[in-house]
Amino acid sequence: METDARKSRHLDICLEEDVASRLDAGFSAVRLQHEALPEFALADVDCSARFLHFMLRAPLVISSMTGGTKRARDINRRLAAAAEAAGIALGLGSGRAALEDAQLGQTYAVRDVAPTIPLFANLGAVQLNYGVSVDDARRLVDMHGASALYLHFNPLQEALQLHGDTNFRDLLPKIARLCTALEVPVFAKGVGSGLAVKTALRLLEAGIVAIDVAGAGGTSWALVEGRRTGDATRERIAEAFGDWGQATARATAEMRRALPAVPLIASGGIRNGVEIAKAIALGADLCGIALPFLEAANESEQAVHALIGELVTALRIAQFASGSRRLTDLRAALTL
Length: 336
Ligand SMILES: Cc1cc2nc3c(=O)[nH]c(=O)nc-3n(C[C@H](O)[C@H](O)[C@H](O)COP(=O)(O)O)c2cc1C
Description:
By secondary structure, the protein is α/β, with parallel strands linked by helices. It is built from 14 helices and twelve strands. It has one domain: Aldolase class I (TIM Barrel), CATH 3.20.20. 43% of the residues lie in helices and 12% in strands. The strands form three sheets. It has an eight-stranded parallel β-barrel with strand order 4-5-6-7-8-9-10-11, surrounded by six helices. It has a two-stranded antiparallel sheet with strand order 1-12. The longest helix has 21 residues, at 301-321. The protein is globular. The model has no long low-confidence stretch (mean pLDDT 96). It binds flavin mononucleotide (FMN). Flavin mononucleotide binds at residues 10-11, 14, 63-66, 93-94, 122, 150, 152, 189, 191-192, 214, 218-219, 267-269, 289-291, 294.
């Protein structure tokens, strides 16, 4: 019940209040060179992507958001049906609620409407210090029919909560055991403050196979938690972190430069198809978007289809107008 109320409040805050990071994601400073003579037709543009062994019709993942509250069921099912129709990936919200109360598992159940897409389960890495075992994580992956597990890293968000889970001691060996034991790949993601290269290196060493930078510039979890406290002092503390973290564009570029081969997802404040093209040009393999999809799914499944259509159309035009027939050609279109 407590989890239901917390999750539902998160949705309301994200939908109704200004929780956008005070930092810019950095895409306006990234330029793609205009190509006046592409020498191919718009219809020839190919935006399909391969990520590990997953094949996608566009380089897009709906970032992890919800589950664990009745409202989440409709939202997840709308997102999933639209993702299936478009051939893109979907991240489910943190599965902790489903592990604590099996009844809540149904609020994440989408495989019947999304049988073929890559579906990513999600858990807070710190939960490995709060009773979540390797068997629990496996149970969650099986329950969702997930293709991979996202572990999210959110020390700031936990620290800003009144009774947050702030014991991040000695997590790496537990993460390593989890990565070895699970049958599906494990990805690491931030939650809107970024993941530094040096952190990614430690995680890859532990067996993580893909990194989602989840950088700053979009939804700020510091601001979300601040709004939730209902305590003026704590809200001011949270506000002080309103521009915390590494901006997404820069975090993506740095990660790709340091780790040329790592499967890489850019997310955090990506808001249109041109920014998707820019993130791919900076080295991302996929782009993740959260809040705009929550707004669309809160409205209708049709609104989610429309948002995906708009993002993909703008991406394709950005490829055409930069002479990038394939996604991989975008790297060469990057200019000052
Ligand atoms: C309502 C909501 C719930 C979220 N819940 C989770 C979660 O359970 N696990 C997680 O890893 N990230 C969660 N996130 C963070 C997003 O996955 C994403 O990293 C962040 O919102 C930045 O992307 P955006 O700027 O496109 O919203 C949530 C975001 C929103 C808006």
